[in-house]
Amino acid sequence: MMRRRRGPGLLMTAAVVGTAAHVGAKRAQSSATAQQQEQAQNQQLAELEAQNAAMQQQMAAQQAPPAAPAAPAGFDMEQLKQLGELHTAGVLSDDEFAAAKAKLLGTM
User: Of 3, 74, 83, 104, which one has the fewest beta carbons inside 10 Å?
Assistant: First the structure.
């Protein structure tokens, strides 16, 4: 019985299979690396957006006008207007106006 010679067919198949396995592994590795890079970029983007939002909140807080002081209990704006009118008309002197205003505002 004569042995058949296994020629380039088997060797060629082995080379093609080995090359395909190597290329597939490289592509999988490249894909995994690309996914890791994309995740890192997404994380950096999220961090930058959070920093931007925090900075905008700080700027808005700094630009907000200060709240007006609360009027004391029993304060009446009409009474203060009447005092001002009396002062302007010359009925109240500067000292009388200041004293009446202080009494009205409760700072006396």
Answer: 3
Give dist(CA 100, CA 86) in Å, integer: 11
**Domain coordinates in residue numbering, the chain:** 9-64, 68-108
Ramachandran category for residue 106: left, alpha or beta (phi over 0 → left; psi -120 to 50 → alpha): left
Q: How far apart are CA 88 and CA 106, in angstroms?
A: 22
Determine the pLDDT at residue 77. 81
Q: Tens digits of per-residue pLDDT, 70-108?
A: 555 556 788 888 888 988 988 888 898 888 888 887 765
Alpha-carbon distances, residue 86 vs 23, 36, 71 (angstroms): 97, 78, 22
Instruction: Write the CB contacts of 8 (distance below 8 Å, at least 6 apart in sequence).
Output: none
